[in-house]
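Researcher: I'd like a structural prediction for the single chain below. Treat it as a standalone chain; there are no partners to consider.
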Amino acid sequence: MNAGGESTPVPTAVSLRSLLGIKSVSRTTAADLGPVNGALVDAARRRVVAWCVGKGRHARMVDQSHLSGVGAAAVVVEDESFLRSPAGDAEKALAKGRLGLIGAPLLTVAGNSAGEVYDADLDPASGELYWLRSATATIPADRLVGYGSFAAVITGL
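Model: Treating it as a single chain, here is the predicted structure.
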């Protein structure tokens, strides 16, 4: 409840797993840009900052800020001119399929296994992560403290 006694709306969340493999489409031309094949997560900001469209040599990146919509049928990119080549190690690893939150081992800061990431819930407009999900737990995204090619690292459990 907010200060006026009214319910505070809960933002709509989408499953990261449900977005992998769906089409990406240009808003300006309605052209099919290719399937969404990955999400680049910034662990410090706890959000998706860019998306990978296509695979391998044909993979291109689009920043979260250049999406105009994320729905069950497609991810809509403002314009195909916002697609770019992967830059930096993390984006190149994502494009090659070597980096991905889904399926990443979950480790606690103490070095203990907490399973693996099965899914994550996020705000489709901002990319903000709300929850990480394993087979046995739902973990608030504010516990995510690190993420890379080996694992996602969380506090507590």
